[in-house]
Amino acid sequence: MLNILIIVLSVALVGQTVTFQTESNGNYNYGDVIHSSLLFYEAQRSGKLPTDNRIPWRGDSMLDDGKTVGLDLTGGYFDAGDYVKFNFPMAYTVTVLSWGAIEFEDAYIRAGELDNVRKAIKWGTDYFIKCHTNEDQLYGQVGNGEEDHAVWSRPEDWSKTGKVRPAYKITSNKGGSDLAGETAAALAAASMVFRKTDPTYADLVLKHAKSLYTFADQHRDTYTSEITDAINFYKSWSGFGDELAWSALWLLRATNDSQYRAQVDKHFQEFASKLTGRPSEFGWDDKTAGVQVLAAQLIGDEKYKTMVKTFCDWVVNSAPKTPKGLVYINEWGTLRHAGNVAFICLQAAKLGINEQPYRKFGESQIGYILGDTGRSFVVGLGVNPPTHPHHRSSSCPNPPAVCDYGAETNPGPNPHVLTGAMVGGPDRNDVYDDKRTDYMHNEVAIDYNAAFQGSLTALLHFQLK
Predict the structure, then answer these.
(1) Is the pLDDT of residue 143 over 80?
(2) Does residue 60 have an active-site annotation?
(3) Of 51, 55, 351, 397, which residue has the fewest beta carbons closer than 10 angstroms?
């Protein structure tokens, strides 16, 4: 008989006790984790918060964003433990959240979170629409990376510093196919999420997606050629061929228009050496694995399925693993990478490609994150979860107490529980220190949770079959 472990934790932000139930074989309550992950996204909101805000220690913030260029660029998400709005990983996050909502809507319904994931997506798309000021101009960052990282404070207190955050854009002068293409993908995918419930809004975001795709294809360059501040934070190392194919595929899926099928074929021919090879990851930079899965879903040619199988067979059988079984893609954000490739291979499983081995792999990676090794890596959930995530706002005590770099080095736990945030994770030897100053292993980020949340919905979907 299975030994049932019931873990009851206090979630201060909703003022109630939530039961997080697991079985000793790692059969986790994925619905509870989906709920918590969406709360993390609410904690990352920038701008004027809605009346249904569920994070009591968060308030309105950065209401002057865009003021330096005479625009309203409020809204969107803070990137990680800081307050810069880096649109490139933010757009990736919205694309992946939308992908999960489209493919695994049944899981969101079972978890009671369909409305909340739609709100999470719309918080991003509303902001992207503000950033797309004309056909050949897109704002892609608000806040200076170096200035932001020099301050440890509440986002609500930023105005007290006297600094007005700069806004950076790409234009037809140089272009930015990676940024514009990823934003087009996010908006195209989101249009499908809202098609049944709000067709007018779906039409609006799709209109912007089409325009941004044209901009991306016609004005080719990497976005950091104009937004140079992003180079040290989110440089697109993989180039822009993956984003062009990615956005064309999402537009094909959203419109079923044959012109986008022709664009997909064009990009696969032009960037064949990249798009047809075996990727080594999936994430905010390199979407090649996602391109291959989406092409297999939409076009169905065996060549695309073979690409997907080649990648996932490598991930499952040959990619480096830690002694306790975590797939080890990169030292920075190890759990993020594990969740990302798990999501791709769970998508492959849904297509019927090696379903059982890929499902088992996905379960093992998400199980590692949730506690299979004896500890959870998700704040506020499970056994011995992180209590010192590298995250400014949750580390700050309630006003009127001062929040400065003393909060970063405070030996105690964060005063606020950042429920649902997955930390970077352990090293290649499964060693992890719950230390706030260790941003490589203990920072959180919106892109970290995106495919992790998608994997949760995929696993819940398979349970419902």
Answers:
(1) yes
(2) no
(3) 51
- In this prediction the pTM is 0.94
* Tokens 């039409």, residue located: 203
pLDDT at 4: 31
Q: 138 with 169: CB under 8 angstroms?
A: yes
Quote the mean pLDDT of the chain: 94
Give the domain extent around 142.
4-464
Helix (H, G, I), strand (E, B) or coil at 435: coil
Give the whole-angstrom CA distance, residue 93 versus residue 322: 26
Q: Known catalytic residue: 390?
A: yes
CA atoms within 13 Å, Cβ hemisphere of 128: 34
> Is it the case that residue 10 has pLDDT exceeding 60?
no
pLDDT digits (tens, 9 = 90+) for 83-99: 999 999 999 999 999 99
Q: Name which of 48, 125, 44 is nearest 84 in CA terms.
A: 44
Residue tagged active-site, from 42, 103, 285, 443? 443
In the chain, how many domains are there?
A: 1
CATH number at residue 144: 1.50.10.10
Q: Is 208 annotated in the active site?
A: no
**Of residues 29, 48, 50, 17, the one with CA closest to residue 110:** 29
Out of 313, 434, 441, 447, the active site residue is 434
Q: Retrieve residue 8's tokens.
A: 């009851």
Count of CA atoms in the C-beta half-sphere (13 A) of 137: 8
Residues 208, 267, 390, 461: which is the catalytic one?
390
Q: What DSSP string describes 89-148? A: HHHHHHHHHHHHHHHTHHHHHHHT-HHHHHHHHHHHHHHHHHH--BTTEEEEEES-HHHH
The single-letter DSSP state of residue 71 is S
| CA distances from residue 12 to 49, 97, 377, 398, 415 in whole angstroms, order as listed | 18, 25, 19, 13, 10
Q: Is 112 left (phi over 0), alpha (psi -120 to 50) or beta?
A: left
32, 65, 79, 82: the catalytic one is 82
Rounded distance, CA 277 to CA 271, Å?
10
> Does the N-terminal peptide bond of residue 155 adopt cis geometry, omega within 30 degrees of 0?
no
| Distance between CA atoms of residues 389 and 196, nearest Å | 38
Catalytic residue status for 443: yes
Between the CA of residue 402 and those of 42, 154, 170, 205, what are the distances in Å?
A: 23, 9, 37, 41
pLDDT value at position 193?
98
Vertex 83 angle, CA 80 and 86, to 5° = 70
